[in-house]
Amino acid sequence: MKFMSVILLSLIISISALATQPSIYGENGVVVAHDLEACEAGIEILKKGGNAVDAAVAVSYALAVTHPQAGNLGGGGFMVIHMADGQKAAIDYREMAPGQAHRDMFLDDSGKVVPQLSIRGGLAVGVPGTVAGMQLALDKYGSMQRKHVMKPAIKLAKKGFTIPYDLAYSFGWLNKAAEGFDETRRIFCREGEIYMPGEIFKQPDLAKTLKLIQRKGNAGFYTGSVAEALISSSSKYGGKLKLKDLTNYTAHIRKPVIGNYRGLEVLSMPPPSSGGIALISMLNMMEPMNFDSVGWHSAQHIQMLAEVEKRAYADRSVWLGDPDYFTVPQEKLLSKEYATLRMVDYDSLIVTPSDSIYPLNDKDLAGIELAGHESEETTHFSVVDKWGNAVSVTTTLNWSFGSYVTVKGFGFLLNNEMDDFSSKPGEPNSFGLIGNKANAIEPKKRMLSSMTPTILAKDGKVVLIVGAPGGSTIITTVLQVINNMVDFEMPVQDAVNVPRFHHQWRPDVIHYGPGAISPDTAVLLKAMGYELTPRYGYGEVNAIARDQVFGGWVGAPDLKTASHGAAY
Ligand code: DON
User: Residue 452 and residue 26: Cα distance in Å, rounded?
Assistant: First the structure.
């Protein structure tokens, strides 16, 4: 018997030698996140006996220090949790519109969208959710106290960390881009004397804020000196946030959306993210497809996924929004029957033009006007602990460095998440995404997101934790990692590394990353009728998978970007 397992193991090993070998492997816990310091913060907490949720809170606060482009106190995000005892939860700490927000706040007198208004400055800022979200996660699913899990972040802010190349680069362009945002340039760009890679970056103001939160919890952020400074910094740049907006903020525990793809349970984020529903609906449309005789990234493969993606994004444009304000036909969108119906006009040989794909082909739900519109930098991290508890988190300020407004004296940036609303029906936002009534601006409403923190399980046991940044491409990125692993049997590191493509219905174009579509495949796709547009910056996937060879966990940071992992 032992002899047989040795043979089997050597067989698996020789097959997997063909694939990218994982560099991160652990039996007790793995964290994969943008920065090494943030991964180490998570591992430190796990080693002290914390669970994956405790570690995730530590990683999130650490990223608020090391990754100011997206890690945050002044933004929001989503956390999907699969506890080893079977509990499943989705923590919604998405930003919310201020009480004074209204549908037409980003339109001029003639009803045209004023482009920069929802992107830079105070009006772009939604009420931040991260601090409340971390507290809720810790209270309900964590096992350690806030004062312990926040320690690594406070140390990083106080003592500093070595600036990596990508951060120095971002600070460099921020210096020019954030002209007029003095506090932002003072903190992150040393007022023009920009940081070099390898310098130590200390953030005493941020350390002070983190300590206040550590000591007082939500009250340390949503009331008192931090809250007052937040309001006055946003007002200085035209914002209408009030103290009441901050005290009104609550994070929610929601039921994750659950699907099934080829025997795997898919657990993901429900509205106000569109991610989980769109992901499961695309997987449902793909399930009847046979990928066995289809070459990876052949014209046929790309056609199959593009057609599925177009249909799901068409539905997203009309049927997804904050469920507390709009009735999302969730059950229908998640059903296999609906997926079958949605694909009746699919033909493996032809392109269905986006103009002939209408959102949700259902008379009962028709009659809603089409409206429509969603830059770059969000961050995803994945955590697993020795008990098998798994946490998948995507968090953001929306665009890199958010609204560019830094809270004076407290060292953290505010989001520009208001741009994720549909400023006007049918007009694309900064991600080219179309929105309608479901995602129109209303006071205290949460803007629709594409963030897709996801966990896959088999027979109740977690096998994959995955997610990505990338605006509208997030959902198709997660879809492709799953497609690569399940249908093309790629090991997780390969599934993450390989290039990606994306179709979002409008514009009617396939976007593709470097190397995703070969020149001769492009010829075939164009002959079918597709328009192709190259695109850089496909989200950084940070995944963890159950290892098939040794039984522990493999961390798979995206090697196309500067991402990291740690394990023990
Ligand atoms: O919630 C969303 O879908 C967007 N605010 C995410 C923004 C994003 O991913 C930017 N970049 N990588």
Answer: 25
* Inter-residue contact 468 to 477 (CB < 8 Å): yes
- Domains, the chain, in order of start with CATH, read 15-24+262-368+451-555 (1.10.246.130), 26-253+377-439 (no CATH)
| Atom of ligand 1 minimally distant from the CA of 447 | 1
Query: How does DSSP assign 500-545, residue by residue?
Result: -EE--SSS--EEE-TTSS-HHHHHHHHHHT--EEE-------EEEE
Residue pLDDT tens, the chain, 568 long: 444 454 445 544 444 546 788 889 999 999 999 999 999 999 999 999 999 999 999 999 999 999 999 999 999 999 999 999 999 999 999 999 999 999 999 999 999 999 899 999 999 999 999 999 999 999 999 999 999 999 999 999 999 999 999 999 999 999 999 999 999 999 999 988 989 999 999 999 999 999 999 999 999 999 999 999 999 999 999 999 999 999 999 999 999 999 999 999 999 999 999 999 999 999 999 999 999 999 999 999 999 999 999 999 999 999 999 999 999 999 999 999 999 999 999 999 999 999 878 776 544 343 333 333 233 589 999 999 999 999 999 999 999 999 999 999 999 999 999 999 999 988 888 888 988 899 999 999 999 999 999 999 999 999 999 999 999 999 999 999 999 999 999 999 999 999 999 999 999 999 999 999 999 999 999 999 999 999 987 789 999 999 989 999 999 999 988 899 999 9
Residue type, 189: C
Helices 519-528, 299-319: axis angle to 10 degrees equals 60
Q: Which listed residue (66, 130, 378, 406) is catalytic? A: 378
Distance 468 CA to ligand 1 centre (A): 9
Q: Residue 378 catalytic?
A: yes
DSSP H or E run through 82 = strand 76-82
| Ligand 1 within 6 A of CB of 398 | yes
- Compute the distance between CA of residue 290 and CA of residue 303 in angstroms, rounded to an integer: 13
pTM attached to this predicted model: 0.95
